Amino acid sequence: MEHSGEGYDGSVPPRRGCGPLIAPLSEASRPLRQQIFERVRAGGLMPRVQVAKELGVSPASVTTLTSELIEAGYLEEVAGQREAGDGGRGRPPVALGVRPGAHFVAGMKLSDSFHTAVIVDFAGNVVASEAVQVPPGNHLPETLIGACDTLLADVTAKAGLARRDLSAVGIGVPGFVDSAAGEILWSPILRERHYPLAAVVAERTGLPVLIDNDANLVALAELWYGVGRETADFAVVTIEHGVGMGVVINHRLYRGARGLGMELGHTKVQLDGALCRCGQRGCLEAYVADYALAREATTALNLMHKPGQPMHVLIESLYDHAKAGNAAARSIFRRAGRYLAVGLANLVNTFDPAVIILSGERMRYDFLYAADTLAEMDKLVLNTGRPGPPIEVHAWGDLLWAHGAAALALSWLTEGLFSPPREMAAQ
Amino acid sequence: MEHSGEGYDGSVPPRRGCGPLIAPLSEASRPLRQQIFERVRAGGLMPRVQVAKELGVSPASVTTLTSELIEAGYLEEVAGQREAGDGGRGRPPVALGVRPGAHFVAGMKLSDSFHTAVIVDFAGNVVASEAVQVPPGNHLPETLIGACDTLLADVTAKAGLARRDLSAVGIGVPGFVDSAAGEILWSPILRERHYPLAAVVAERTGLPVLIDNDANLVALAELWYGVGRETADFAVVTIEHGVGMGVVINHRLYRGARGLGMELGHTKVQLDGALCRCGQRGCLEAYVADYALAREATTALNLMHKPGQPMHVLIESLYDHAKAGNAAARSIFRRAGRYLAVGLANLVNTFDPAVIILSGERMRYDFLYAADTLAEMDKLVLNTGRPGPPIEVHAWGDLLWAHGAAALALSWLTEGLFSPPREMAAQ
Hints:
homodimer; alpha/beta; Nucleotidyltransferase, domain 5; 5-stranded mixed β-sheet; 12 helices; 15 strands; 37% helix
């Protein structure tokens, strides 16, 4: 996990909230100790014997290392459930769990209609959430920063915490984000390019701040709390105001050589095709995203997008027309679905994920992932004689995106807590 | 590295050639020992102090472990070059190298015009090579196996070795190959689908046999002997009779969820587009590969592909027409170049490799990677304000492909030599 937040030296700030001070752990067995911690966090509550089995190590090692982790305040023992049929004899089994109160972080998703925020404990549980409506379009940096600051204050208060109780803040924004540098290269919600959002928010809030592309954070949320618990390689495709993608390879978010993550929405599905808001032609997004549908609705159905009106009102109206049998409305969705099929099939041919998850608000409508679209995709995927990856639809709302942003903050926090001095890392 | 070769239990056969018997190594420090071996093999000759520095471990550890590796017959000491200006004082420096004679493997590339084979020593040096012309089109399995067997005998004899001196055979074929299962799902050179090539050749030759998609093996050759020495993530795109791709992520060949590797040539660049030999429409290959150019040449220039004539004769003629200013010929190459630009741009947007290598025989011609095509690609790649990945052209011949097949055999061999019993692996 890359670090961010200029103005910070990369170290995790000392814990200032309630609970025992987190002692630094000895370095002797770093990787396995971190593995144990992460396995327990991923699994929720887990008996030691199961941890040992899943990691393929001796129960004795697990016992030693979990003692250290409990001592340090990262894990705790929780009375487990008695299994049915054991007759109630003996001690109740004891499971390990992450100690929720050890740290708290905030996660925020900024978008062009709602900003959403959550407070998450060290175990990954959402403690409080908050959302605020914002006017569409792009904004001056000061406007965006101010909104962040207010939202953070509100959600922190809602959780019954003070800002100094937070260990880090994760923020997801649409567009091209250099997570390692904490910089937004371009975002549809921001009027400036190459803007150092992480450093600016860090200075304003006095907290370490991590930022990333929003679709990457949905993938991170899936990695931590969803499909990633069973699957090492998967892709999340988000269809909302734009089309985003996050890719997980071998249990890690894959960011590519320039650290920006993947942009399925700007793959070309048509040479010299429809104009995209990125300025290029033929992007998948220019056929599938909200604004693409709205553009066609304006042309053929005389549906107008009123200034200031949320985009989904228009899309909902277009959807109603299609359901009522309007040929033009149906043709708009049909074309969007076919190009989506091209984009997904190309994803399968160049990445072959074990699962593809379609995520985002728009998944409430069924026009994009209708049987027609999936059948079209099957026809476009390589014919190897084996079935392609399953497509799952997760119609979760913005809370998931904010939860992913919190996972980014927790990842950074965890790496900092467990990372050894540089010269030890090579072993 | 997956293992293959049904009929084998996965263990490396005992060394039967010249040189000391390879003793199994103790298990105490497996990962670092293997890392040292692989670093030395990648680097050619390397002083101990450089190995220690590159792996970030103590020189004492490297000294201990290299003694074991020398004892086991895998590494040897080689007198290094005196550095200029040291005045010739003291002992000449000593470098470590892989002991070439410890093992020999064969690598073969099967195609629809030439089969190529090499014998490679344990250090990765080509000891002998051989090629044989074959009639185009697909073949019965017996024909292919027979050709493999004869070619293997010829190249082994040329190296002054007997078949029993070989430790493994790697084979690359075009098409969809399940490397782990040793099975060809579909290949344009084979008349049967779902054919267990590895097991059949293993039975015929009495040797462990690994197979893979040919483009994957070009990527493996680059990983071992080329760009992979400096770069962790890259893609190799091969343009020959078809369009292939091999992807390396974090120094490993990436094969995707179904183990088949990536198929850029069958990504769709045009909905309902040109017919591909895979039976689908709009594949990149259907615009860029030999047969696509030949199809258009037949239509517009009345150039005919005579049965039995190698395809490159027709392409060469088409190329001559284009150079002489023929508008139709130029238009054929122009369109192929534009669609190639779409395919490469989509690759950048969904994988963002550090480098893209264009490889294959056809790279001798400049029509596909001309300035026009690269400029077009730049226009189609995400505009992040940062330059896209560099495109390198490696116009190596079939020998590289066979060398990659040998690297597949060496990878398998190395994994077998260093892999500990299952229960040790978890640490």
